[in-house]
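TASK: fixed-backbone design
INPUT:
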């Protein structure tokens, strides 16, 4: 058992990206934030499934070419192999929870020149 305080962790890109509260051994758990106009490169996972739960703001999460406009209270599940891309097309920051399981140290495959 352990307790983590979000304020003791940092976002990957200063004010945006994932802030991992737990990485492994069986799953990842992160708070994710994007400022207006920011995005996260399209990618997929070979083994891990990814979930997002929207806490604040709005975001477009593109999954296999389909744009999903999400807002607080909504949850999206992404299967292994599904290409996904996140972009904040809105005028407020987005804050959401991300989980990835089963944990794999290296499982993210970037997709270059992604269009939808």
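OUTPUT:
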């Amino acid at each position: 058992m352990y307790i983590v305080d979000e304020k003791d962790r940092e976002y990957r890109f200063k004010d945006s990206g994932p802030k991992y509260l737990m990485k492994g051994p069986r799953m990842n758990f992160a708070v994710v934030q994007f400022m207006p106009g920011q995005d996260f490169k399209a990618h997929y996972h070979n083994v891990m499934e990814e979930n997002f739960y929207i806490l604040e703001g709005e975001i477009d999460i593109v999954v296999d070419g389909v744009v999903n406009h999400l807002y607080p209270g909504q949850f999206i599940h992404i299967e292994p192999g599904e290409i996904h891309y996140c972009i904040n097309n809105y005028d407020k920051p987005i804050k959401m929870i991300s989980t990835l399981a089963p944990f794999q140290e290296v499982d993210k495959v970037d997709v270059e020149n992604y269009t939808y």
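COMMENT: The chain has a mean pLDDT of 97.
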